[in-house]
Amino acid sequence: MAKKQTIKHIAIAGNIGAGKTTLTKILAKHFNWSPHYEDVENNPYLNDFYNDMHRWSFNLQIYFLNSRLKQLVEIQRGNQVVIQDRTIYEDAYIFAPNLHEMQLMSKRDFENYKNFFETLKSMVNPPDLLIYLKASVPTLVGQIQKRGREYEENIRLDYLKRLNEYYNNWLDKYEDGRLLVIDIDKINYADNKDDLAKVIDMVNAEVNGLF
């Protein structure tokens, strides 16, 4: 009988406003995992990016790539089970190509970024379990407005819509490990206890399948 894999890294993917941070906190507490969050408060580029996407897109994406690579190195070196708020793949497969397609990142910068990512990707392991929070644009907008971050006030609807298309295309072909899709339009785990219990059961089933 083959030895079952020991789980070490769970990652949560999803568009802006999908509820990644909320679910990371909930699951970290429930399963006693170590949470790694996306550092939005101390990001030196976010405000500038939302005010002038073309000028700051490359800088922002490099900042995210570096911060998430550091997290992955820590996960691989450590002994704890870690749950990560957003993945290194989303920057490369969703945000950067979307910025390039919208002509908000030059071809030269995009090619440079993409080649850099491919080098880094060969050095790190994919998550043992990827949880994708799938949500429609109206749901995302509602949750973005609810949390009221000032720098997110200028996010365009077409930007969110295009990101959603990239997410769905990426995850339709995802084969790097186990994938759990949670439909946020139908499951409100943040405000509904029954929905939260459902999500925990779904994650539990996936995690137990890894041991």
Q: How does this model look, in words?
A:
With 211 residues, the protein is α/β, with parallel strands linked by helices. It has one domain: 3-Layer(aba) Sandwich (Rossmann fold), CATH 3.40.50.300. It is 55% helix and 12% strand. The chain contains eight helices and five strands; from the N terminus they run E-H-E-H-H-E-H-H-E-H-H-E-H. It has helices at 20-31, 46-51, 53-77, 88-101, 107-121, 137-147, 157-172, 193-208; strands at residues 9-14, 34-36, 82-85, 129-134, 178-183. The protein has a five-stranded parallel beta sheet, sandwiched between helices. The longest helix is centred in the first third of the chain and has 25 residues, at 53-77. The protein is globular. It starts with 8 loop residues before the first strand and ends with a helix.
Structure keywords:
five-stranded parallel β-sheet; 211 residues; Rossmann fold; single chain; alpha/beta; globular; 8 helices
